């Protein structure tokens, strides 16, 4: 493990600045003490008020006049001893002036390394590194103790490179280091994670025979652990002839840092069994942290009990660790009890409690506690900022950030990352531009982590052009893959899945992407949106090869991808293969069957989920309620029971989504009066989605009065999305009320709303081929239109009758048919029939609901071509086969 190279083998480029003889630059408070006279010592002694210090002076019956030098040997020894006593008192009482006065006296005595070393140590303990360094430079022949003291002082005062340089200078002067020198040097290496230099020092330690020292071995293990080399730590640990509790704590801490929680507990049990050592607060804190990170609730409670038994339950570090543990593996009550029983609390305790309340969604209580904190620091402010963001309180986070700026609280990269996240939550372009400008002015634009957050913010605020610019201006760093992932996700989030896929392909070709779990999950989502089954399969294979399939989030994304592409057998197979499943896994499979409009399969899964004791969430219940409208038999009574028992059975209050699902079920089974009654009795104002669900739920147009009444409700709520206007306009058109239909569209134009253009696409040879209504942009448009005309003629012969009810009334009948014949879905299906082999199904995706005429047309197409046609619209899948649709099977 350890290198055998000598220090002289270190690269000259690294060592050259360290071997320079010039002293480090300290603040201006560095002064030269040779001018301090002995008379100042006498003057200062007259003002001593501390009884113990005065007593020492009173016992010093020595002449202070310089004319009475030299002292006798006995007097000099006596004075030296008294100086040492005074230095100890100066450290004990934090008396800087006394230490400097003793310094002035020592300068009058013969040079003695022991005295100077004691003075250096005193200055360092008083936090006066420049003074200590000044004493060191005044020693004509510093010994190993002098060097060790100053190296340790540098290391502890964040002058790590100066410490390393001093060590090199000591070796160059032929001074042999001792075990304490090595510990001080390794401490400096640890602070800057200098692994390779530590390896070379390890070889010197072995040569000089200091491997027997527990302190040196512990320091080496600490360095290797900090640098992430747990194998080296374990090897060194096994080779140690003797170990103390610090040794065990170091190796246990290293295992926890490397996420090897099982190994950490195994080491703990070995410590108790082999060395029979008693755990201390550091051991317990590490083990409790391991329990929290691994969500080991029962084991964490056992460690808590062990801490109680050993009497560490009131120790500050242990109590703080327990707050973190119960935040992850307990309840808000557990954390509150832990916090309240602590006899002593520090800023970490308060911050941990605030973080816990934020984790449990108790934002108001967290803010109240934050205001009560005895002393707030940047860490506590950052914890509240992050908590507000995790609870989607973007405005609250921005308000707190403004307060931090006004109070001149230190802003760190974590602060700025949180406020950027707050802007992302709000998706407000103007605010995001202001925060972006603030970050640039603050000078942290070059920080890669903040830059990655800015890219993500731009994509969430619709600033895709700015996000692209930032990515192209980025240099390679560890956050570059995150920026790529954010940009790809941004295109998908902004309804640009094709751009997302093209960017992914380009990034792969440029070798700029690292396909980790996050990116793989993102691309699988894009594949699901596009129905890009082939690319989704490739990502599935990548997950299998790289071992990422053990990540439950990625496994859920694969299930969703197959479900959205219409391959439910593959989705079920992946679901059954997952090593661990959570509620989301079940939701993914349930949603897939709901897309296929397979209500009975959803209810079977729901039964299995309950048998597996998986607690459902709000999304699960929404999907299960919706599934009742796709069952082969009327199960409205079961749907009612589930809906009205949500609060009691699952502690979930019905939301607008639940009401919309329930109302759509009632409408699907023609229970309009009951549906309207449910809406009227809602405990809050119904959202427009509830009325839309009722309006869309019935295909029959017989009860026109009900539909008109629903349409009035929708218009009265002043919808801001164009789809609601189009729905109502089509409803009036179906009734022949063209004037009302035109008024609705005029209102839509007045509000500046535009209908989302109907778009259909099909995947062929790993390319997305998109079509719009009457679109002739495709390179094979001429063949497509000829093929569609032939297809229409064959369907007309088979009995197809175009449904022109929704086409504008002021055009001629033949023009109405022309509008209908060249809808985007018809063009996409025709292209699929032309380009795919006989017997293969046609799979088309659509961004809006399939119109009634296209739905009817594809039934005839499936009959005359003897082909299966799958169309996925916003309501789910339609499978057309032999003149029928899967919608007709109920």
Structure overview:
With 890 residues, this protein is mostly helical. Among the domains are: 595-699, no CATH class; 700-755, no CATH class; 759-889, no CATH class. The protein contains 48 helices and six strands. The chain has a six-stranded mixed beta sheet, covered by helices on one side.
Describe the protein's topology.
Layout: H1 12-15, H2 38-46, H3 51-58, H4 73-92, H5 96-106, H6 113-125, H7 129-137, H8 144-156, H9 160-172, H10 179-191, H11 195-208, H12 214-226, H13 230-239, H14 245-257, H15 261-275, H16 281-293, H17 297-310, H18 316-329, H19 332-340, H20 347-359, H21 363-372, H22 378-390, H23 394-407, H24 413-426, H25 429-442, H26 448-460, H27 464-473, H28 480-493, H29 497-509, H30 517-530, H31 533-546, H32 552-565, H33 568-577, H34 583-595, H35 599-611, H36 618-627, H37 636-644, H38 646-650, H39 656-668, H40 672-680, H41 688-696, H42 704-716, H43 722-734, H44 738-750, E1 759-764, E2 767-772, H45 781-798, H46 813-821, H47 824-835, E3 842-846, H48 852-865, E4 869-873, E5 876-881, E6 884-885
Parallel strand pairs: 3-4
Antiparallel strand pairs: 1-2, 1-3, 4-5, 5-6
Poorly predicted runs: 1-69
In angstroms, what separates the terminal alpha carbons?
A: 70 Å
Please identify the structural class as seen in this structure. mainly alpha
Number of helices, where a helix is a run of at least 4 consecutive DSSP H or I residues: 48
Q: Give the radius of gyration.
A: 38 Å
Q: Give the fraction of residues assigned to helices.
A: 55-70%
> How many β strands by DSSP?
6
Shape summary: elongated
Give the strand order of the largest sheet, numbering strands 1, 2, ... along the chain. Answer: 2-1-3-4-5-6
Residue fraction in strands: under 5%
| Average pLDDT taken over every residue | 83
Main pleated sheet: 6 strands, mixed
């Amino acid at each position: 493990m350890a290198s055998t190279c000598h220090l002289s083998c270190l690269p000259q480029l690294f060592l050259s600045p360290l071997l320079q003889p010039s002293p480090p630059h300290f603040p201006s408070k560095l002064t030269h003490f040779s001018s301090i006279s002995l008379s100042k010592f006498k003057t200062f002694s007259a003002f001593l008020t501390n009884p113990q210090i005065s007593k020492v002076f009173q016992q010093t019956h020595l002449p202070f006049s310089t004319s009475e030098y030299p002292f006798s040997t006995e007097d000099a020894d006596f004075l030296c001893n008294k100086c040492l006593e005074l230095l100890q008192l100066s450290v004990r009482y934090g008396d800087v002036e006394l230490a400097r006065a003793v310094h002035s006296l020592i300068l009058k005595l013969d040079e003695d390394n022991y005295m100077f070393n004691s003075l250096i140590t005193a200055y360092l303990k008083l936090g006066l590194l420049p003074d200590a360094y000044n004493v060191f430079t005044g020693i004509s022949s510093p010994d190993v103790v002098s060097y060790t003291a100053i190296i340790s002082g540098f290391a502890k005062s964040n002058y790590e490179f100066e410490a390393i340089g001093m060590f090199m200078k000591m070796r160059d002067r032929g001074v042999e280091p001792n075990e304490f020198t090595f510990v001080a040097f390794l401490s400096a290496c640890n602070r800057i994670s200098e692994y390779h230099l530590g390896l070379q020092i390890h070889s010197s330690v072995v040569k000089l025979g200091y491997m027997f020292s527990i302190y040196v071995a512990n320091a080496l293990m600490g360095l290797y652990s900090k640098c992430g080399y747990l194998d080296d730590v374990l090897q060194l640990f096994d080779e140690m002839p003797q170990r103390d509790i610090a040794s065990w704590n170091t190796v246990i801490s290293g295992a926890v840092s490397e996420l090897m929680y099982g190994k950490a507990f195994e080491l703990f049990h070995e410590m108790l069994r082999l060395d029979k050592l008693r755990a201390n607060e550091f051991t317990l804190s590490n083990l409790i942290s391991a329990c929290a990170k691994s969500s080991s609730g029962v084991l964490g409670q056992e460690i808590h009990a062990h801490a109680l038994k050993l009497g560490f339950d009131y120790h500050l570090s242990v109590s703080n660790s327990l707050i973190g543990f119960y935040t992850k593996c307990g309840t808000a009550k557990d954390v509150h009890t832990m916090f309240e029983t602590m006899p002593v609390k520090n800023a970490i305790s308060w911050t941990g409690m605030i973080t816990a309340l934020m984790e449990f969604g108790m934002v108001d209580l967290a803010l109240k506690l934050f205001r009560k904190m005895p002393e707030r620091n940047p860490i506590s402010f950052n914890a509240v900022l992050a908590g507000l963001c995790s609870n989607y309180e973007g405005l609250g986070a921005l308000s707190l950030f403004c307060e931090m700026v006004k109070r001149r609280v230190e802003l760190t990269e974590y602060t700025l990352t949180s406020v950027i996240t707050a802007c992302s939550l709000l998706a407000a372009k103007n605010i995001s531009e202001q925060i972006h400008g603030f970050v640039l002015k603050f000078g942290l634009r070059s920080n890669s982590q903040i830059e990655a957050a800015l890219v993500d913010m731009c994509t969430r605020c619709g600033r895709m052009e700015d996000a692209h610019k930032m990515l192209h201006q980025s240099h390679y760093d560890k956050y570059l893959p995150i920026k790529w992932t954010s940009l790809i996700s941004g295109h998908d989030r902004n309804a640009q899945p094709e751009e997302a896929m093209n960017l992914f392909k380009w990034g792969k070709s440029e070798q700029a992407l690292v396909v980790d779990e996050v990116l793989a999950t993102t691309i699988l989502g894009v594949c699901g949106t596009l129905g890009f089954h082939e690319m989704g399969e490739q990502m599935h294979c990548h997950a299998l090869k790289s071992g990422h399939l053990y990540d439950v989030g990625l496994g859920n994304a694969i299930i969703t991808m197959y479900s959205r592409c219409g391959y439910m057998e593959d989705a079920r197979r992946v679901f059954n293969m997952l090593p661990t499943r959570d509620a989301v896994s079940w939701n993914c499979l349930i949603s897939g069957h709901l897309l296929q409009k397979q209500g009975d399969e959803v209810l079977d899964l729901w039964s299995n989920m309950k048998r597996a004791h998986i607690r459902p969430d709000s999304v699960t219940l929404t999907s299960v309620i919706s599934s009742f409208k796709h069952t082969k038999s009327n199960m409205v009574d079961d749907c009612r029971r589930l809906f009205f028992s949500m609060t009691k059975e699952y502690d979930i209050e019905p939301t607008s989504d639940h009401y919309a699902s329930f109302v759509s079920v009632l409408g699907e089974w023609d229970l309009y009066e009951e549906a309207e009654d449910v809406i009227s009795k809602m405990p809050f104002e119904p959202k427009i989605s509830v009325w839309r669900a009722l309006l869309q739920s019935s295909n029959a147009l017989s009860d026109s009065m009900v539909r008109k009444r629903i349409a009035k409700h929708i218009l009265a709520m002043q919808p801001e999305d164009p789809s609601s206007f189009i729905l109502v306009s089509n409803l009036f058109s179906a009734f022949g009320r063209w004037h009302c239909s035109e008024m609705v569209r005029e209102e839509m134009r007045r509000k500046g709303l535009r209908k989302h253009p109907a778009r259909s696409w099909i995947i062929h040879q790993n390319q997305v081929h998109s079509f719009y209504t009457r679109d002739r942009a495709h390179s094979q448009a001429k063949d497509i239109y000829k093929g569609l005309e032939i297809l229409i003629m064959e369907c007309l012969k088979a009995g197809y009758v175009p449904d022109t009810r929704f086409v504008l009334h002021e055009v001629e009948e033949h023009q109405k048919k022309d509008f209908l014949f060249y809808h985007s879905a018809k063009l996409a299906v025709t292209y699929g029939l032309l380009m795919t082999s006989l017997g293969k199904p046609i799979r088309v995706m659509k961004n809006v609901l399939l119109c009634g005429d296209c739905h009817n047309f594809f039934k005839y197409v499936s009959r005359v071509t003897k082909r299966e046609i799958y169309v996925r619209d916003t309501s789910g899948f339609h499978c057309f086969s032999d003149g029928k649709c899967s919608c007709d099977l109920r």
